[in-house]
Amino acid sequence: MAPPIPPQAGEPGPAAEPAQPAFERAGAGAGAYRRPLRAGDIASGPFLLSAMERRLWKDNVEIVLTPTEWTLVKLLMEREGEGLSRDDILNAVWGRHYVGDLKIVDVNIRRIRQKIEIKPSDPKHIETLWGYGYRWNRSGDQ
Predict the structure, then answer these.
(1) Per-residue confidence of the chain (142 residues) as pLDDT tens digits?
(2) Measuring CA to CA, which residue among 131, 88, 135, 139 is closest to residue 109?
(3) Number of neighbours of residue 117 by Cβ within 10 angstroms
């Protein structure tokens, strides 16, 4: 294969076009890269949630979630630091007219923790508020 022909004087070459970085540095010395935030994105600690793409990344690694899990994570991240009751979560994710067991919230939280926490039995990002519900904690020291 022949090498590419360089552009002639005055012709714009590939270097003349501004490069759009796919990812930007997440932090000095962090070694991780994160794409620039877009409208609808939510960033929290090591997490980036894209509303447009319906995807979640932790430390630039995609975490595959079901549609229900994604909706639940989005709700928690949007209301970061705020305690949400099981009823609030149930109404927001499953709808006010959901007929079934309230434990569906706990089951989905457990599944999400299995996917996002380093040690699911000692969660840092989704905190349990005993007797009430859950809270998203940005500064999960992991």
Answers:
(1) 555 565 555 555 444 433 333 344 344 334 444 567 788 899 999 999 999 999 999 999 999 999 999 999 999 999 999 999 999 999 999 999 998 888 999 999 999 999 999 999 999 999 999 999 999 997 654 4
(2) 135
(3) 17
**DSSP codes of every residue in 89-136:** HHHHHH-TT--S-THHHHHHHHHHHHHH-SSTTS-SSEEEETTTEEEE
DSSP code of residue 54: T
pTM of the model: 0.73
Pick left, alpha or beta for residue 120 (phi over 0 → left; psi -120 to 50 → alpha; otherwise beta). alpha
Q: Which of 124, 128, 119 is nearest to 137 (CA)?
A: 124
The CATH class, in words, for 66-136 is mainly alpha
Task: Confirm if 25 and 31 have CB atoms less than 8 A apart.
Answer: no
β-partners of residue 61 are 58
Domains of the chain, residue spans? 66-136
